[in-house]
Design brief:
CATH topology of the largest domain in chain A: MetI-like fold
CATH superfamily of chain B: P-loop containing nucleotide triphosphate hydrolases
Strand content of chain B: 15-25%
CATH superfamily of the largest domain in chain A: MetI-like
Largest interface: A-B, 21 and 27 residues
Strand order of the largest sheet of chain B: 6-7-8-3-9-10
Strand order of the largest sheet of chain A: 1-2
Order of helices and strands of chain B: HEEEHEEHEHHHHEHEHEEHH
CATH class of the largest domain in chain A: Mainly Alpha
Radius of gyration of chain B: 19 Å
Structural class of chain B: alpha/beta
CATH architecture of chain B: 3-Layer(aba) Sandwich
Helix content of chain A: over 70%
CATH topology of chain B: Rossmann fold
Number of domains of chain A: 2
Shape of chain B: globular
Helix content of chain B: 25-40%
Distance between the termini of chain B: 20 Å
Oligomer: heterodimer
Number of helices of chain B: 11
CATH architecture of the largest domain in chain A: Orthogonal Bundle
Shape of chain A: flat
Number of strands of chain B: 10
Chain lengths: 318, 284
């Protein structure tokens, strides 16, 4: 029909030719893939070791004893006992206190940043909050041990209310871990709050809502699932937290709900055994792996649930 | 003469005679029903350094539909949002001049913007129901006003949904999520929600532009019906729509108010050349 579209004879061939540049492209690809593979392989390796050692542990200690016994005394010379509950209880108690402190404070900070703060104050406050996330956790632990317990908890509870507060206790550990997770919660929640469509804010304001009405009645409910996910991620971080709790909460595996007493968390136990002299292949050493495995499964489950909720939340507004 | 619109207007006048009688003819303000509800005087508006509105002086008659037309970016939406101070939430926005609601300057520092917005409701271009039930959406305004009595809330919800011509479709699913409604239903729900705060003025920012023709027709009928009780200001890109639903039309161009008059007049015998060029499709 139109002669001007007749095929030209000088066009480059569509077939691939092997040149130096295609070779380079291939090797870059392989290199990058290898780098990605390292972290995947490490993860798989760790999980593999955990599974194997856990299996060996359970060949010596029955599953019933692990979940049924309420005493954790792996180093007892006459009769070692491996009931996970004291460690689990210590872990959840510290995480619970941390949650009670960190969740509301982190959420309110997020609400301020996303709904109230001007661009200017946001640009100042956000980086400061993020610095908090960069403080090494051992500093927090030390802060709990040498400041929170002697200068905050003991004056209030011991001198004021007559409750015995030891140098190591759940409350101080919970408080410092709670402060530690504030940036996690506030930054995740802020993302979630800001992703609530602007149209809903405008609709609320146009109906004669105050900012507070809009925040509490519209934005928070709309962002609820995302906030729950942020909470779960932060709590899983609190559960996995090691140094702060090892220092502040002590290492006494008691099954207690008393926050003024020392406990031993799963992570603190792992530190203890790693640094100790338990022989390779001994039941003590293996107990380290089974605790690590439990910890891994708990935080993994929380992360998966949180990511799932978060992804569903994101889809809701797209 | 602009024959394309004379037909629309003739049809409108034949089918639905204006609520307050045609005896008013073309004289603005010679009837008590046409007293101004909102007046703006020398209204200037700035986004940071950029001026978006220039010396807008106009009045919006009570219990009538006033349409704001003009090409994209002409300032009609900005103007609409100065009337309930929605521009307050925009960073760097600045207003000069006065906007009077029944003689009271709404930019006076003593004016409570929350109270203002209860009297001047708004419906947005993109329907924005809250992710709550149909009932909770409509009950939102009364509830933030402090009403908790379930029976009273139910009465309000029912009457607002009826006024928004949505009751028959949703009466059996008040507890369902508002997000499950169709686009047209969502927009009518937003109108019902705006009515529930019992406003005197309704600002509508292209309320039908995202809807299919059938839903658009329903919303237009609704607007035409609502003008009996409310003062309505509607921004629209659709000139047929302006011609169908409004009594008055204001043409904005490049941040300036070019012309405001009876809709019949604007669409048949515009005074300004720019208005004529726009509505005949010569630009915009």
């Amino acid at each position: 029909m139109s002669s001007e579209f007749s095929p030209s004879t000088s066009r480059p061939s569509l077939y691939r030719r092997w040149t130096l540049s295609t070779l380079k492209e291939q090797s870059i690809r392989v290199l990058l893939f290898a780098c990605a593979l390292v972290s995947v392989a490490t993860t798989i390796g760790i999980i593999g070791i955990l599974v194997v050692e856990t299996g060996l542990f359970f060949s010596q200690v029955s599953v019933g004893a692990f979940f049924g016994d309420t005493v954790w005394a792996p180093q007892s010379s006459d009769e070692p006992r491996f009931g996970i509950w004291p460690l689990a209880c210590g872990t959840f108690l510290v995480a619970g206190v941390a949650g009670l402190i960190g969740l509301p404070m982190g959420l309110l900070a997020a609400l301020y940043l996303s709904e109230y703060a001007s661009e200017r104050s946001r640009s100042i406050l956000k980086p400061i909050l993020e610095v908090l996330a960069g403080i090494p956790s051992i500093v927090f632990g030390y802060f709990g041990l040498v400041f929170v317990t002697p200068y905050v908890l003991q004056p209030i509870f011991m001198n004021g209310l007559g409750i015995d507060v030891g140098p190591f206790n759940v409350l101080s550990a919970g408080i410092v871990v709670g402060i530690m997770i504030i940036p996690t919660i506030s930054s995740l929640s802020e993302d979630v709050l800001r992703s609530v469509p602007q149209g809903l804010r405008e609709a609320g304001l146009a109906l004669g809502s105050t900012k507070f009405d809009v925040s509490v009645r519209i934005i928070l409910p709309a962002a609820l699932s995302g906030i729950i996910a942020a909470f779960l991620l932060a709590l899983s971080r609190a559960i996995g937290e090691t140094m702060a709790v090892t220092i502040a909460a002590g290492s006494q595996p008691d099954l207690t709900l008393n926050v003024f007493r020392p406990v031993e968390t799963m992570t603190a136990y792992i530190v203890l055994i790693s640094l100790g002299e338990a022989a390779e292949g001994s039941i003590e050493k293996r107990s380290l792996y089974v605790v690590a495995m439990s910890l891994f499964l708990i935080t993994l489950a929380m992360n998966i649930v949180a990511r799932f909720i978060l992804r569903r939340y994101r889809n809701e507004y797209q | 003469m602009l024959p394309s619109f004379s037909k629309v207007i003739a049809e409108k006048n034949a089918n639905q005679p204006p609520a307050h009688g045609t005896q008013v003819a073309h004289g603005v303000g010679d009837s008590p029903l046409h007293i101004p509800k909102i007046e703006t005087r020398d209204l200037n508006f700035f986004y940071g350094q950029r001026q978006a509105l220039f010396n807008i002086t106009m009045s919006v008659p009570q219990r009538n539909v006033t349409a704001l037309i003009g090409p994209s970016g002409c300032g009609k939406s900005t103007f609409l949002r100065t009337l309930n101070r929605m521009n307050d939430i925009v960073d760097g926005a600045r207003v000069e001049g006065t906007v009077l609601l029944e003689g009271i300057d709404i930019y006076n520092p003593n004016v409570d913007v929350v109270a203002l917005r209860k009297r001047v409701g708004m419906v947005f271009q993109k329907s924005n129901p809250f992710p709550k039930s149909v009932f909770d959406n409509v009950a939102y305004g009364p509830r933030i006003g402090g009403l908790t009595d379930r029976r009273k809330l139910m009465e309000i919800v029912e009457s607002c949904l009826k006024r928004a011509a949505l009751w028959e479709e949703v009466s059996h699913r008040l507890k369902d999520s508002a997000l499950a409604l169709s686009g047209g239903q969502q927009q009518r729900l937003c109108i019902a929600r705006a009515l529930a705060t019992d406003p005197e003025v309704l600002l509508m920012d292209e309320p039908a532009s995202a809807l299919d023709p059938a839903s658009t027709a329903r919303v237009e009928d609704l607007i035409f019906e609502l003008r009996r009780n409310y003062t309505i200001v509607i921004v629209t890109h659709n000139m047929q729509q302006a011609a169908r639903v409004s009594e008055y039309t204001a043409f904005f161009f490049q941040g300036k108010l070019i012309e405001i008059d009876k809709t019949d007049q604007i669409f048949t015998k515009p005074k300004e050349k720019e208005t004529e060029d726009y509505i005949t499709g010569r630009f915009g």
